[in-house]
Every structure is written in structure tokens, then in C-alpha cells.
Fold each of these.
Amino acid sequence: MNRLQTIDVALDEMLVNLAAIVLRLSKPELTRTPEARRALAQSVHQYAICAKRSDDPRVHELKSQLEETLKPSLRVVARNGEKVS
């Protein structure tokens, strides 16, 4: 493995570890405030920029998972005791 490949693999590992950290921080109980949501969105955006150049499928899968955390969660609404979509 040449030197550039070694660096590339190390960067991919760093991206995988970074994604794991951001995923842990994306939990709803940690992102209740608008500032926390903006910080999460910025982290996901910056991760996506870095992940774009990676050839590691794990990095791209984690990018997709991170982007999903930005989508609003749906909730069940009930009217007169019955679930309403």
C-alpha cells in the first residue's frame, strides 16, 4: 500500500469515528433547542462535504444516516381517542 492509500484509509477511519460521534449527539433529547438543531445540521453538512470524496461505502452509509437525523420526526395524533394520521 502506498503512502496516499495509507492516508486515505486513515481519513476514512476518522470519518467513520466522527459520524459515530455525531450520530450519538443527534438524539432528540440532545437536540431540543434551535441552536442544537442548527449545530447538528452544520455538522452533518460538513461531514457530507468530506464524505463526498471517500470511496469507503461505510462513510456513504453513515452520511445517509446522518442526513436522516435532520428530517423531522413524525408523531401520531389522536382525536377523540382514535389515532389520526
Amino acid sequence: MPDRELLLEYQTVMQNTRVIQLYGELLAFMRETARATADLRDSWRVSAVQPGKLEASYFTVVTPASGKRKGKYVVALLHGELTFELWLCGTNQKALGEIRKANFPFPAENQRPVPEEWIPFVAACWKLGDSNLLEAGAQALAEKAEGLICKIDESLR
């Protein structure tokens, strides 16, 4: 059973704040960003937004270059930090291992260490920006992700 004190705190937050409303608005923003990203490149396959766990919501992008390596990109909103990241992942554990082994010369700008809890799923990760991107709009986030994806794709070729 979860800690009773934490349950009461969670219940208080959910009942006395507009967290649920904000969560819905953040998911709508991510859906708009996914649509804008898909509109940027005809050759990219963009998934629907996955609400994920409480800590992150995301959508995936498969480009011709990442698809050849059985890789995919994840554009993620980390809810606790209100930051956006781009992750390079494998479509399965074997592909993830191959991407890691290949030691591609990824762009170092804004690259950050993969958090320990994401290591089983993520080969590399880059910060796209913080909550200022919410004000800039979905198109701005889509274009920022596109620019970085194109740079990383060059490394994958």
C-alpha cells in the first residue's frame, strides 16, 4: 500500500489545484507540436502523443535515417521540470544496443547525460528548452526539434 501521508497530499493537490486542467492543456500543446512536426517533413513518421507516466508525455518521430538504424526520436515533455527534451531511442533493446555500440559523432550542443531511470530505453538525450517554449508555441518547438533531428540524422548516416 502506498504511504498514507503521500496519498493524502496527492488527493489534496488534485482536489485543490488546477493540475488536471493544466495537464490537459500540456497534452494539447504536445498534440499540436506533433502535428506541426509531421507537417515539416513528408518523409517523417510521427506518432500520436503518449501521455506516458506522470513524469513525461511524448511523441515519436522516425526519419529515413533513424529507421535504417531501427532507431526513433522521442520529443518529450518532462512534467516535473517543465522542460522539453529530444531522445534517441531504439525500436527494441537490440537496436538500442547497436546504436550505443556504433558510437556515432552526435552533436554535443545541449546534449546531456541520460538519466539513470531512462538508460534502458534511451541512447542519447538533448535539451530542447524549458517552459519558454510553451509561450513560443508548438511550431517553435517543432522547428527546434526538426533542426536537432536533422543534425543527429547526419551522424546516423
Amino acid sequence: MAAYAVKHIVDEQGPLLANLKAIRKTPHSYTSREPEASEAAAGGDVYVVEVRKEKAVRTYWLGYKYQAREKYAPAGGGVWKGGFRFRNSATPGDRADGVYFEVLPQITDAALCQWLSTQTPMAELPEPLIEQLEAVIGAHAAAAREYA
């Protein structure tokens, strides 16, 4: 099953943790990328990465991981807040698979940061980079929280 990285850009969308209450209940992410949104909704893992710009340097922080089960488009053919065409999410009302962080760990792996810097806001992750993201989760396991 494919896995995807979704970038949450702080300068455009505000801090990821501002949405923590909703994320804990039903993790979700937004994109305008098709077919990635449909493919992710078939049970793909989604890693949501906060992108911060500090001076001229971009840094990457792992916010949460969840297994997508749904894809929604807003009613009436409109767009979601932020101009996105699709919302992927876990199944509302079911316990989501994955973890979230209340204090985001920084992604420091050079290859992963380089890859993130060249990708669209939602992109399929190559297998070695999935392993790097899982290593971040493992290294910060004490801070990782499971969904309720």
C-alpha cells in the first residue's frame, strides 16, 4: 500500500497544532492532488508534515500519521478552506490507525528534508523515506499519542 507525505505550510495555513482537537478526533488532511487523494483513501498511510520558514531556511516537523479511509469533496463543487479540492480522513467515528504529536519532532534526515523540499504539497513517498519517517516516530515514541 502506498504512503503519502502531505505538507502543512505554516505561512499559509497557520500552525498545525491549532487543529489538534479535530485531528485527535478524526485525523485528516487536505489536498488538490488527484489521483493521490483517491489512492490514499484506499487505506494508504498519510504523514502530515508541518513546514516552517525561519529566516530563509525551511524546516520540517512531523505532526501526525494516519491511515486514510475516506475522500471528500465539498458540497456544490466548491473548495475547502485554503482552496483545497479534497479532504482525506480516517473514518469518522472509528478509532484511527496511527499517531500524533502534541510537541512536533523535527525531521533532521538530510535526504528526507531534500526530498520534501522538491515535492508538491501531497506526494507518494518512496520506501526508504517511509522508513525514515517511521524512525522519527520510533525515536520519539514516548511523545507519540494514539488516537482515541
Amino acid sequence: MDVREYRDALRSVLESTEAETLRRLGLISRAAAEADIEEIVLDLFVDDDAEGPFDVWARFEGESVFVTQQRLGDERQLVDVVWTESGWEPPVPDRPSGWTRADLQEALVDVVAEWLTALLPTGAADRVWVLQTPDGEIDPRELRRPGRT
């Protein structure tokens, strides 16, 4: 599997989860607006073995964010790929042979950033949305809805 094939396969799996992701993004956006939070950080965690599983969690930057994060709880989790008896759930593609953890992480960030940008709620333009990896190995990506400068 080459980079393009991996990206296409991953995007297809992510698109199958869009309804729930849209719902959660809406909750996160509304909570940020109600609490006057200006920055929403989306942390992409790649599992230690880097075989394929990853998570994306939203958190808020700024003063007094703890209560808002606690209120949302697990609704802040946008993607959760786990190993089950029958394989990955949702069924993301395995890391291609020969790829390093860094290769996988870069492809995940690219695809997830593109996918989430298209899903950001209308009110998202009033906030800064950033996708990053907590380890800092990949430069943070600011997500901007089309038409936002």
C-alpha cells in the first residue's frame, strides 16, 4: 500500500463516522462559545506500537477551561480506534510495511486535518481550531473553514 492508497482508505473509514463526529464537533463548538473560549486544540495520539490505532481528543486553551472540559467529558473524543477480536474498530488500514512511526503520524495528521476541516461547524470560524500531536513531532495545523482568513 502506498501513501495515496493509505490516505484514501483512511479517509473512507473516517467518513463512515461523520455523523457522530459532526454531533461532537457541534457540542464542542457550542461549549467553547458559551464559555468564551477562543482556542480549541485537537490532540492526535498515535498508539505506542504505531500499528494503526489512534485517538483524537478536543481540549480547550485559555482561562477557566477545566469546568467546560469536565462537562463535555468523553464527548470530546472525536476518533477512537481500538483493537477488537475482529481487528481495528473502526476498520482503519494497518500501517503500511516499511513505514516508521513518524511516517504514520504524518499521514494521520494530514488526513485527519483535511477531514476535520471540512466538518467544522459554521460557528467554528469564531474560534481557533488546531490539530497537533502532543509529542510535538508534527507541527500544529490550524484548521480553517473555507472563507475564513
